[in-house]
Amino acid sequence: MLIDRLLFADKTPLVLKKALDFQSERHLLISSNISNMDTPGYQAKDIDFKGALRTALGTGEGLAIRTTNRHHIGPNSEDIKGLQAEPFGEPDAAKSNGNNVNIDKEMMKLAENQIAYNATIQMISKRTSTIRAAITENAQG
Description:
Elements: H1 2-8, H2 12-35, E1 45-46, H3 49-57, E2 66-69, E3 72-74, H4 77-81, E4 88-89, H5 103-136
Antiparallel strand pairs: 1-4, 2-3
């Protein structure tokens, strides 16, 4: 049906789900960094969802678009499904005990991640209300 393709055929729900997965994983990493701020030799870690998504969708700032049918164009959903959180070490300078956790930076990243998580939830909620409005033929509120 046409309505099925219009509402459910795009990659948006998959990207939003992956964004929530990465934001949850990042929250755990940041929390671990904060809880280990006094552990000798501990190295802070982080993940980069934007970079992983760019890699899955294409290279650099542009998108490498692949056609699966001559009537439509879009990125491969298998590349999006295969995204995995790959932690990397923070390059900050270490203290005398070998620990490089900067509490101010970690608290800033935690707040930033929480804002991104809330925004993603709002996008999912708005998309759901749009679909609900289309099904019930009511105007969105």
